Amino acid sequence: MNTNRNYKNLQDSYLFATIGQKVKAYTATNPDKKIIRMGIGDVTLPLAPAVITAMQNAVAEMGVPETFRGYGEDYGYEFLRTAISEYYIKKGANISPSEVFVSDGAKCDVANILDIFAAGSTALIPDPVYPVYSDTNIMAGNKIIFTHGNEANGFLPMPDESINADIIYICSPNNPTGAVYNKEQLQKWVDYAISKDAIILYDSAYEAFIQDDLPTSIFQISGAEKCAIEIGSLSKTAGFTGTRCGYTIIPHTLERDGMSLHKMWSRRQSTKYNQLPYIIQRGAEAAFLPDGLAQNKKNIAYYLQNAKLMSETFDGLGIRYCGGKNAPYIWLKCPDGLKSWDFFDALLEKANVVGTPGAGFGSQGEGFFRLSAFGSKENTIEAMERVKNFLK
């Protein structure tokens, strides 16, 4: 029996597993210390009332024969796909319900979408970025070319005509840097993808945090229907990190190598995926309806206020950073030239605050550090006071 030996090329431990081990070891010897976790981007506010009501009603429906439901529709219930379609139409992106595929989260779709691409494809991946992009391509045996984000380009790398790629990853707002592409920049990426006959995989997991006049979908860009797949999530925008719901949008017009990528993904999902529970999909639908959108907007504002508090702290300390305005992350430059993991250890030991070392997001992340705004306001204020006392 032969194993997938590509796994030997992966790092020994997933980034957040290593962080968890370090924090566990510290708390074991310092049980009296209050640790404030600002590392993993997990939400803390409860689900919106409209979402809870919708799920409670759906539970009641499942309890009587007249409204009980068994297996769901292969690509998600039409009521949810329609709600997502209407959400995009309001943005000026003409997406039909039949182009929407519901799933249990963006992370799964980002990984599973590689099923429809040939093994040995070339993936153009930004560095720094969410580790799942590179890890899943390593697992698939694909060739990876990194495009570097750094201080000079505002952590927003642009196309290089000398590079040929089959798959292009774009995350905007970016995780971990919080940097956001504008319309002109995304247009250059779309034009580049078309010229290279490549496919853009656009991760819009944090689109709801954009407050300025910036694109929130790749399908707001001219020509994107010819070259792009968008992967969205309710994890951060509606607090579904524990409830789970995401979606992938593939236009009917998207074809490569004489094949429809929409039909390929349809076939893949109907074969390998069994859909979300009806109860969860009713809750997700409510998140896209007026009451749910308004309630979730308040939650987004809460997290962005935390980010503002963090930004003001680092402004006062004279520490350079990215993000915090249209994204829930602060991407700061480690003080005194410290390396990322050294700053992690110092912050944990001296301030009892946990963040995420930038080196875990790629080589260009070395010397940088990510802090999340997804905690409570009280913990954010306390954490920033500790940081100020540690760094002043």
What would you say this structure looks like, in words?
38% of the residues lie in helices and 15% in strands. The mean pLDDT is 96. Helix 2 runs antiparallel to helix 8 and helix 3 runs parallel beside helix 8 (278-288). By secondary structure, the protein is α/β, with parallel strands linked by helices. The chain has helices at residues 15-29, 49-61, 78-89, 106-112, 131-140, 183-196, 261-272, 278-288, 290-317, 340-351, 377-391; strands at residues 36-37, 100-103, 122-127, 143-148, 167-171, 199-203, 228-233, 246-249, 255-256, 259-260, 321-323, 329-333, 353-354, 356-357, 368-372. It is globular.
Which features does this protein show?
globular; 392 residues; 11 helices; alpha/beta; 4-stranded antiparallel sheet; 38% helix
Quick structural overview:
By secondary structure, the chain is α/β, with parallel strands linked by helices.
Strands, count:
15
**Strands ordered across the widest β-sheet:** 2-8-7-6-5-3-4
Global shape: globular
Portion in beta strands: 15-25%
Structural class of the secondary elements? alpha/beta
**Helix tally?**
11
Helix content: 25-40%
Order of helices and strands: HEHHEHEHEEHEEEEEHHHEEHEEEH
* Gyration radius over CA: 21 Å
Largest sheet: 7 strands, mixed
Oligomeric state: single chain
End-to-end CA span: 58 Å
